[in-house]
Amino acid sequence: MVDRPRGTRDLDPVYLARHWAVDAAFRRTAASFAFREVLPPTFEHLELFHAKAGPGIEAEMYGFKDKAGRDLVLRPEFTAGVLRYYVNELRNAPKPIKLFSIGPAFRYEEPQKGRYREFWQYSCELIGGAPLDADAETIAMLHEELDQAGQLDLEATLRAWVGLRGGPEVLKQAADVLGGVGTEGFDHLQRIADRLPTYGIRGGILFDMGIIRGLAYYTGMVFQVHTPTLGAEDQVLGGGSYALAELFGGEPIFSTGFAIGMDRIVLASEVEGVAVPPPRLDAYVIPIGDASRPKAFEIAATLRETGLRVDVDLIGRGPSKNLDYANAMGARWAVLAGDKELAKGNVALRNMETGDQREVAIGELASVLGMDKPPMGGVEFH
Ligand code: HAM
């Protein structure tokens, strides 16, 4: 037996049905906000993250030398890679630029529930918008993302300075503490608070003057989202506005973004009982006797072409063992291909739920099976 590396998981079919449902919900919202997908490489030069991500993340990076002696790291996040791509390929493209990425990221952290060494992020970057508009649009989008991905009890938290936490009134209090000096940041947050209702967002946002984010590249507003369902690892999203393009040789450009911890959303949706249909199997084709095997494979191939999910006996089991297997796989129908029926151009079709069985012409199988086809498991998520 060889164990998995510590902090990694085998994502099984049930987990993945939920994972891809979350993925589909994220993509729908990204499309509705006109974000386009980009996928930077899984490993990058160490210098991309060195002194940009901050000492916390840098200490957690998976680094290695390739055969030519280059220092490489598995990406601990997407923002630096996406901004490198922007500077290399898109610096002259019309602004603003809206990009999202979905994939695994790697951090050598102490593993626990909701915290892994390989985890999935859904990361969004809005590059080159006007500060107020881009910040507000980004918050509106992440709000919609989390709304669509399951009914999380949201607390979006705008975090900026020491000691004060609450509604927009804390911005005024914080400005008073500073005696009006250097209070542009609070004015900015106030303007964002005023803007959010135009996106239909009323409440759920907390202004917190006392928290610092783990990544070092933020230069403006930062925010996090927490869920009450996950215990210690309750932060499902982090982000803010930042300056990275100039570190990679580009002009300074205002950028705001966030990343959602997909694994934590998947976990939270499970804890909250959000239903995801299991992957379905429409039909399992059972040849009865060796002579009918070629015809059984032909029937399976024809049904697959119509878009049905179909499996066929690959072991040469007897019919009753095959029915047990069809049952264990959750097949809706068993198609029994026996010599007697095949000679008439028919098969026996068994409804696995009711046990009813009847003879059906092979030519009509696809339409009979397609008629009550339930939605595809694992892609619809509301
Ligand atoms: P971050 O806060 O480091 O921000 O990560 C974002 C989210 O990824 C966290 O809120 C958490 O849900 C999830 N996450 C982080 N580490 C782990 C882990 N070890 N296991 C499971 N989930 C984890 C960033 O990565 C920034 N790039 C966000 C950003 C985008 N800022 C601007 N643009």
- Give the strand tally: 17
Question: What integer is the average pLDDT?
Answer: 89
**In order across it, which strands form the biggest sheet?**
1-5-6-12-11-10-7-9-8
| End-to-end CA span | 40 Å
| Structure annotation, total helices | 12
Shape: elongated
The structural class is alpha+beta
Order of helices and strands: HEEHHEEHEEHEEHHEEEEHEHEHEHEEH
- Low-confidence runs of at least 5 consecutive residues: 377-382
Residues in β-strands, percent: 25-35%
Bound molecules: histidyl-adenosine monophosphate
Largest sheet report: 9 strands, mixed
Helix coverage percent of residues?
25-40%
Structure report:
This protein has 382 residues and is an alpha+beta fold. It contains twelve helices and 17 strands. The strands form three sheets. Strands 1-5-6-12-11-10-7-9-8 form a nine-stranded mixed β-sheet. Strands 14-13-15-16-17 form a five-stranded mixed β-sheet, with helices on both faces. The chain has a three-stranded antiparallel β-sheet with strand order 2-4-3. A hairpin with a 5-residue loop joins strand 3 and strand 4 (71-74). The radius of gyration is 27 Å and the shape is elongated. The structure holds histidyl-adenosine monophosphate. Residues 77, 79, 107, 109, 115-116, 119, 121, 123, 125, 214-215, 235-240, 242, 257-259, 261, 263-264 line the site of histidyl-adenosine monophosphate.
Short description:
By secondary structure, this protein is an alpha+beta fold. The protein has helices at 13-32, 46-49, 55-59, 79-90, 131-148, 169-177, 184-195, 262-271, 293-305, 319-328, 339-343, 365-371, and strands at residues 36-37, 43-45, 63-65, 71-74, 97-106, 118-127, 155-159, 165-166, 205-208, 218-226, 235-242, 255-261, 281-288, 310-312, 331-338, 346-351, 357-361.
